[in-house]
Amino acid sequence: MFNDIGSLELITLVVLAVLVFGPEKLPKVIQDISRTIRKIREFSDSAKQDIRQELGPEFKDFEFQDLNPKTFIRKQLQNDDLGLDEIRESLDLKKDIQQLADPSIANDPSYRSPAAASPPPAAAASGPVGLEKKTPQSAAERPPYDLDAT
């Protein structure tokens, strides 16, 4: 419960409690506080039990920690039913940037560029002068990619 309170903070709280309540009233105040905390815990445990009973047997493995958004998302991402690993791999920009910076990677057979997955667009057969579609340049024709310029 108080995992993040250090020894210096604990000593400060004890000294402040002695100064505020006095050494005579301090034991009674501690008993009252511990009784109140015990009642709050009992109330929350009974409320949790009532909720579990009302939900029924189909929610017997329900945990209240799952209501925390971080815990819920972490638990859902452990089950890769949505194919998130494939999406992450397809959005790996490091390989694309390295390929642009180092043309020798373009000759690597294990590297598959996202642009290679789709065919290049066809040039316009007819249209206004100067507005024809240009075919994309090959890796050898492209100017070198400058990481410092971006």
From TrEMBL:
The domain of life is Bacteria
The compartments listed are: Cell membrane; Membrane
Does the UniProt entry include the keyword Cell membrane?
yes
UniProt region (Disordered), positions on chain? 102-150
Pfam families per the record?
TatA_B_E (PF02416)
Q: Does the keyword Transmembrane apply?
A: yes
Q: What topology in the membrane does the UniProt record assign? A: Single-pass membrane protein
Q: Which UniProt keywords apply?
A: Cell membrane, Membrane, Protein transport, Translocation, Transmembrane, Transmembrane helix, Transport
What family does the Swiss-Prot or TrEMBL record give for this protein?
Belongs to the TatB family.
Task performed by this protein: Part of the twin-arginine translocation (Tat) system that transports large folded proteins containing a characteristic twin-arginine motif in their signal peptide across membranes. Together with TatC, TatB is part of a receptor directly interacting with Tat signal peptides. TatB may form an oligomeric binding site that transiently accommodates folded Tat precursor proteins before their translocation.
User: NCBIfam families recorded for this chain?
Assistant: PRK01371.1-1 (NF002374), PRK01371.1-4 (NF002377)
The annotated subunit structure for this chain is: The Tat system comprises two distinct complexes: a TatABC complex, containing multiple copies of TatA, TatB and TatC subunits, and a separate TatA complex, containing only TatA subunits. Substrates initially bind to the TatABC complex, which probably triggers association of the separate TatA complex to form the active translocon.
- The molecule here is called Sec-independent protein translocase protein TatB
Which organism does this record belong to? Answer: Streptomyces fragilis
Gene from which the chain derives: tatB
